[in-house]
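To whoever is on call:

I kicked off a structure prediction for a single chain this morning and the downstream step that reads the tokens threw a length-mismatch warning. I double-checked the sequence; it's 295 residues and nothing unusual in it as far as I can see. Pasting both halves so you can look.
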Amino acid sequence: MSAVSRAAGLLLAMLAALLPAIGQARDRHVLWTVAGQHNTVYLLGSIHVLRPDDGGLPGPAEAAYADAEKLVMEIDMDDVAASDSAVMLDTMQRTALLPDGRSLHDVLGPDYAAVSSRALQAGVDLEKLDRFAPWFVAVTLLQVELAKRGFSPELGIEQTLATRASQDHKPIQGLETAEEQFAVLAGLPLQQQKHFLMMTLEESAHIDQQLDELLQAWRTGDTAALARVLAAEFEDFPELYRPLTEDRNRAWVDKLVDLLDDRDDYLVVVGALHLVGRHSVVELLEQRGYKVVQQ
């Protein structure tokens, strides 16, 4: 996914009030295996953006990639690589336009001044985004904050694997399209979008500590800490959990079950927080009777 479109997914995986990672999970990884009748499906929890010094894939993930004949990601990275990023940006912006007669100032109401002040601190002039929905503003602000800290989608897990898969001629499939990702956010009622923006601002105030702690939990495979991340993220805005996380997980599981009837081995790469917590992909597969084993 381009830096722009991938940012929507980042809001689910990067913004959270984190707790320290616990030591018991030190020898685990954010990687699971699910055995089909004739194949294996690997589930790898991703960090969508990384910095140059954050290191590469853990050993078990390298082994899973080597074993898999095909890759599955949130969207088809082959299609994204072949598309024009300017076209993707145009699609996102058109999706994000507010209805005629509405403005961001109108939607935010008395909170506009506070949001505008925070946006200016990040280097974003809210007046230039007045025709766009709150979710687009949240994505834009997060992009700016991450870029300031050296995080890049080109160094993230998906792009790293997509580049390698292209060289190794391994096909990539998508669980959804970039347009569908935009539509999830655009489909939220404006009041929920406002909550989404306020959640982003609240979490971004502590983003440095949060990012470091999230990376630590991811590296150690600490699923308990990651589950607390997810719970904390939506604690103040529980109405967002279902459309942004649970509904997507359920749609993905239907497709993963089909993969388990195949003969090829698959490496499935999705945001790490989709694999932990309530109604996670892992939990939903277990409810269908599959044994999901963390590596």
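Update from on-call: the warning came from a stale cache, not from the record. Cleared it. Sanity check on the structure: Strands lie at 31-35, 40-46, 70-73, 172-174, 266-271, 292-294.
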